[in-house]
């Protein structure tokens, strides 16, 4: 396989051949790379981008894009393993771009930055860093990367692993995750759901979108849930070791986890609830302006 | 009463640094002097606020990434495509710094609020007429407004390069954010000491700024 890459590098690592039967052109870009290479891929709207972390010491970008697309790369000398590589794909129009499909393979420990328009992005097996930015479509991340930053406007973001550090932001897109050591998720009107996995530190916030927190708490965990008007649902282990501090400005609080009753605000508006179980090693703070807060067992 | 306590006496009392005898004399004076008593309360509140400040203030998570994003194109100056992006990106960089500054200001202000969490006199309806805010929140709001105005200028320049659906999404989100800000603002005007409410107010602004920032960074035709 190494010979394959040397050959590819010898041809300046870039090949773009026009497919004979379809109005599309193939993309086939490759280069030797260090295990922690930093890869940047920039495309306009494209049908799908699939990022795969593999065991090889190389980068490969393959796929099809509409005829007339421009594919540019900048790496290092052909026969040397690069520490950084940039790739740029420009399609003639947004509409035709949506017919394109790209597969980017990188060393597992790579740091990958992808910025694109509307696309369905899927990432598998990258344990390094991910910085993903799309407008619409979706982002799905499998596996547990060290760092994950994902931003979208209306794309839904799904994280199926448990990253050590994650910051996810959308405008209207939904966010679904399985915990993580240090996670932050923010949206205007999308929903946020964290279920399964362990959480050590988290802040989940929305303006109108609902928030569901049903992950386990690591020892000394600190979780903040905040929404202006979205419903906040907290699902705790029946005898979870946690202290819960809930306050709303006008919203109602419903507690089905413990026997403690929420207390009305000083002048009868809003509610508060402080309840705990065990040694209080974990702490959850919930703040809501007018959304309802529901606390229950799972 | 003209023979007031000195500032040092009040500070020492607030800090618990006076011996019992001196403290008794000072406290006796306070029972009959509203002016000194008010000054003592202000000092005590300041002490509480200072104690609640974070030991360190980290910059926003996005700050370095955004600054780095501006440095990379500079290194590639002279290449046609990157050059075409430089002005908006540089403008965005300036805005990012402004946003970061505002966020830090808000963080400090938020930390300086008293810990009392009153939730009385809530106004839940959206009020668009500006109402007075406590000074600390008004200062934070001014900072947010500056950031928003700067970002909106950049976005206006780029609006035609974005897909209509994206513009619609951004505008929809901004309307939601504005509505939430107005509600929180109106509630704060009635309940300015509510720390939880102040935090929600700041968060609404920060999410709005974040949407604007990201909209200014989108690629053309998206």
Helix content class of chain A: under 10%
SS content category of chain B:
mainly alpha
User: What's the Cα radius of gyration of chain A?
Assistant: 23 Å
Order of helices and strands of chain A: HEEEEEEHEEEEEEEEEEEEEEEEEEE
Number of helices of chain A: 2
Widest β-sheet, arrangement of strands of chain A: 2-4-7-3-9-11-13-15-17-16-14-12-10-8
Topology:
The complex is a heterodimer of chains A (about 300) and B (about 220).
Chain A: H1 2-10, E1 14-15, E2 24-43, E3 48-54, E4 58-66, E5 70-74, E6 82-90, H2 94-97, E7 101-107, E8 111-115, E9 119-124, E10 129-133, E11 137-141, E12 147-151, E13 156-159, E14 165-170, E15 175-177, E16 180-187, E17 192-206, E18 211-227, E19 232-236, E20 242-248, E21 253-255, E22 263-264, E23 271-277, E24 282-288, E25 293-297
Parallel strand pairs in A: 2-6, 2-8, 3-7, 3-9, 8-10, 9-11, 10-12, 11-13, 12-14, 13-15, 14-16, 15-17, 16-17, 17-18, 18-19, 18-24, 19-25, 20-24, 21-25
Antiparallel strand pairs in A: 1-2, 2-4, 4-7, 5-6, 20-23, 22-23
Chain B: H1 7-15, H2 20-32, H3 34-51, H4 62-75, H5 80-111, H6 135-158, H7 164-190, H8 195-216
Helix pairs in contact in B: 1-3, 2-3, 4-5, 5-6, 5-8, 6-8, 7-8
What tags apply to this protein structure?
heterodimer; A: 298 residues; mainly beta; 14-stranded mixed β-barrel; 2 helices; 4% helix; disordered N terminus; B: 222 residues
């Amino acid at each position: 396989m190494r010979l394959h890459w040397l050959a590819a590098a010898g041809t300046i690592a870039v090949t773009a051949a026009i497919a004979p039967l379809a109005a599309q052109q193939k993309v086939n870009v490759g280069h030797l790379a260090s295990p922690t290479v930093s890869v940047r891929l920039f495309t306009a709207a494209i049908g799908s981008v699939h990022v795969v972390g593999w065991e090889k010491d190389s980068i490969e970008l393959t796929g099809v894009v509409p005829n007339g697309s421009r594919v540019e790369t900048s790496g290092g000398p052909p026969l040397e393993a690069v520490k950084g590589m940039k790739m740029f794909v420009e399609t003639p129009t947004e509409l035709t771009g949506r017919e394109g499909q790209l597969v980017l393979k990188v060393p597992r420990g790579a740091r990958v930055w992808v910025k694109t328009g509307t696309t369905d992005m899927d990432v598998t097996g990258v344990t390094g860093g991910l910085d993903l930015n799309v407008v619409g479509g979706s982002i799905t991340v499998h596996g547990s990367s060290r760092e994950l930053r994902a931003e979208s406007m209306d794309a839904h973001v799904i994280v199926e692993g448990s990253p050590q550090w994650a910051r996810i932001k959308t405008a209207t897109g939904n966010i679904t995750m399985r915990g993580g050591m240090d996670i932050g998720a923010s949206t205007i009107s999308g929903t946020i759901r964290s279920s399964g996995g362990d959480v050590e530190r988290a802040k989940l916030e929305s303006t109108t979108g609902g928030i569901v927190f049903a992950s386990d708490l690591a020892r000394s965990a600190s979780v903040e849930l905040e929404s202006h008007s979205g419903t906040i649902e907290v699902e705790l282990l029946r005898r979870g070791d946690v202290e819960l501090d809930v306050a709303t400005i006008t919203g109602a609080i419903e507690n089905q986890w413990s026997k403690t009753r929420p207390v009305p605000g000083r002048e009868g508006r809003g509610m508060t609830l402080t309840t705990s179980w065990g040694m209080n090693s974990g702490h959850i703070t919930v703040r809501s302006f007018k959304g309802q807060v529901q606390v229950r067992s799972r | 009463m003209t023979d007031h306590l000195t500032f040092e006496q009040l500070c020492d009392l607030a800090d618990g640094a006076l011996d019992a005898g001196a403290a008794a004399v000072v406290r006796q004076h306070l029972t009959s002097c509203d002016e000194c008593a008010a000054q003592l309360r202000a000092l005590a509140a300041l002490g509480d606020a200072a104690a609640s400040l974070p030991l360190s203030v980290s910059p926003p998570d996005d700050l370095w990434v955004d600054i780095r994003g501006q440095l990379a194109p500079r290194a590639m100056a002279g290449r046609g495509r990157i050059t075409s992006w430089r002005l908006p990106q540089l403008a965005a960089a300036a805005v990012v710094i402004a946003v970061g500054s505002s966020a830090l200001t808000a963080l400090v202000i938020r930390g300086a609020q008293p810990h009392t969490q009153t939730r009385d006199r809530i106004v839940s309806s959206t009020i668009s007429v500006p109402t007075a805010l406590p000074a600390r929140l008004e200062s934070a709001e001014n900072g947010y407004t500056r950031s928003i105005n700067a970002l909106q200028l950049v976005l206006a320049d780029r609006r035609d390069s974005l897909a209509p659906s994206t513009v619609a999404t951004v505008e929809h989100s901004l309307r939601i954010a504005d509505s939430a800000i107005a509600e929180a603002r109106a509630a704060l005007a009635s309940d300015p000491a509510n720390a939880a409410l102040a935090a929600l107010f700041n968060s609404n602004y920060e999410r709005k700024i974040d949407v604007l920032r990201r909209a200014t960074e989108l690629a053309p035709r998206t």
